[in-house]
Amino acid sequence: MSTQKKPLPLIRKVAGGLFAAVALCAPSNGAWGQTEDKVRIDGSTTVGPITKAFAEYYMRQHPDVNITVSESGSGNGAKSLVNGTCDAAAMSRFMKPQEFSAAVDKGVMPVAHVVAIDGIAIVVHPSNPMANLTVSQVRDIYAGKITNWSQVGGPDKKIVAISRDSNSGTFECFNNLVMQKEKIAGSTEYVGSNGAARQRVQSTPGAVGYVGLGFLDRTVKALSVDNVHPDPDSVTSGRYPVARPLYLFTDGYPELGSHLHAFVTLHLSRKGQEIIESLGFVPVTHYK
Known about the structure:
By secondary structure, the protein is α/β, with parallel strands linked by helices.
């Protein structure tokens, strides 16, 4: 028999904002105007593995449906939804007030669907002997106050800090949860995706970067933060300090029975949960 657990701790933290968004977001006249056999997704590279896996699964079940997934970043996903060039915006952060305002000005009513929970892992080169950093140490590294690994108990090696670009939802969350209004140093290198951040770290012995849980593999080493290792259990429990919900935003609530509705609610099914777990993310449902 299938059972579901109560919403995860991190969901409760954003529930007020989500309910407010839904209350404000009655479907607009154009909310359900997407072509019936086509669904367009654009946005976050963090949410990308989920949306691509969902698209592959859904199109196998419905060969007459074409689902396209673009990964232009959370900010560009929001713009695409506002401009009507996508049916769902994948975002690794909640929409900003100015994005909501721009949407409403164009008659678009964004509705948030939390599809998974993600931890932002701090990663280093596998040869780096470091195992743990505190949030304040990570902040000082990216602020340029700590520039050598020896300053935090590591080897005498210059630190190369790698960050996501400022249009990224992962950057926004890292900036809020870790930097806490501290300015990132000018020496920091910026890359355009989680994959690029991982690649830069895996090829640079002195590097440190941050990626979503779904991008962890043996080519990089994930550090514990405040002595908590980033994994689904620590994120689910709320113990890991750098975590956030992942979203799909639609223009109004999708028409019941439409392919768009089925797609943005796939995460609530047993198969959706299996896909999310297989990718290393944390599902919002728990079927046994």
